[in-house]
Amino acid sequence: MEKIIEVEGLTKLYGKFKAVDDLSIYVEKGRIFGLLGPNGSGKSTTINCILSLLKYQKGEIKIFGETMSPDNYELKRKIGVVFQDVAVFNELNVYDNIDYFCGLYIRDKETRKKYVEDAIKLTALQDFKKFRPKQLSGGLLRRLNIACGIAHKPKLIFLDEPTVAVDPQSRNAILEGIVKLNKAGATIVYTSHYMEEVEQICDRIVILDKGKIIAKGTKESLKEMTTMGERIVIEMAKPDKKIMAEFEKMPNLLEAKYDDGKLALTFARGKEKLPSVIEFLKKNELSYERIFSELPSLNDVFLELTGKELRD
C-alpha cells in the first residue's frame, strides 16, 4: 500500500534528554493509525516533528512522498490537525469559525460554502451555527474544534485526544465522524488515552515509551503479546482470607483482586479456566451473583508493556 507518512531514524533531543530516539514508522494510505503511549513517551513530540512544528537533530520525514519542511505550504494544505486544546475564536459563531479556518486553504467562496456545510453536517452542528463557543457544551466545543480542522477536506488528519473530557454521547458522535472521514478517503493518525476507542476504530497501532517503539501491529496481534490468557470476574461477597489464599493457589493465576463487589482472577495463557473456577465455587459452597470470562483487551496489553506506575 502507498505510504502517506514515512519517518526514518527520527531523533529529537532536549539537551541530553532523548524525547524521540531513532524512531522509524510509516502510515499507509487509508488507515486509522493509533499512536499510543503513556505521558512523556514521545507521542506529541513525534507528531510535532512530523508537522515541522519542531526542529529535530536527526532523521528524515516524508509526507505524500515529499520531504516535510516548515515552508512546504502546498503539502500542508493536504493536512488537517486537531490538537487536544480547543483553538477557536470566541468572537465568531460556529459557522464563521469553520468558515475562517476553511478559508485559510479554500479561496473559492462557493466551494468553501459547500465544504463548511459538509463539515457542519459531519459533526452534527446544524442546530448550533449561530452559537458562539462560550454557549456550547464541552462535547459541542470538541466537535466544533474537529470541524475547523477538517473543513478543507484534508487527505491526512492528525487527531490528538479529540474525545478528552466529553460525555459518552459526544464521544460516540466524534468516533462515528472519524470513521466517516476515513471512509471518505482520509488517512488518520489518532492519539488517545482511551484504549477502548483505539480498539474500536484503529486498524494499525504503535505503542511508544521513552521515545522508542515497544510494540506495533493490529489490535489482534498486540493482544497476542500479553501473558494474560483470560480474566474471570465473579460478582460476590468479599471472600475471607482463607478462601482468598485458596484462590491464589490456582494454577497459572497471575493476580487475584477484589474491588467493588467483584473478584477478578487473571490467568496466564493456557487451558480455559472458567470450568475449574466454577467447580471451585461449588466445592467451597460459595454463592455468587454472576460469573463471566474476559479475553485480554488493548488496555491490558498497554499496561503490561508500559507498566502500572503513575506517570507525570
Describe this structure in words.
α3 packs parallel to α5 and α5 packs parallel to α6. The two termini are 38 Å apart. A 6-stranded mixed beta sheet has the order 6-7-8-3-9-10, with helices on both faces. It has 312 residues and is an alpha/beta fold. It has 2 domains: 221 residues, Rossmann fold, CATH 3.40.50; 68 residues, Alpha-Beta Plaits (2-Layer Sandwich). The chain is globular and about 75 Å long. The protein is 33% helix and 29% strand. The longest helix is centred in the middle third of the chain and has 16 residues. A hairpin with a 2-residue loop joins β12 and β13.
Summarize it:
With 312 residues, this protein is an alpha/beta fold.
**How is the largest sheet built, in terms of strand order?**
6-7-8-3-9-10
Shape: globular
Fraction of residues in H or I helices: 25-40%
Q: What count of helical segments does DSSP give?
A: 11
- pLDDT below 50 for ≥5 consecutive residues: which ranges? none
Q: What would CATH call the architecture of the largest domain?
A: 3-Layer(aba) Sandwich
Cα-atom Rg, whole angstroms? 23 Å
How far from one another are the termini?
38 Å
Q: What pattern of helices and strands is seen along the backbone?
A: EEEHEEHEHHHEHEHEEHEHEEHEH
Mean pLDDT: 95
CATH superfamily of the largest domain: P-loop containing nucleotide triphosphate hydrolases
Main sheet characteristics: 6 strands, mixed
CATH class division of the largest domain: Alpha Beta
User: How many E strands?
Assistant: 14
Which class of secondary structure composition applies to the elements? alpha/beta
What is the domain tally? 2
Provide the CATH topology of the largest domain.
Rossmann fold
What percent strand?
Answer: 25-35%
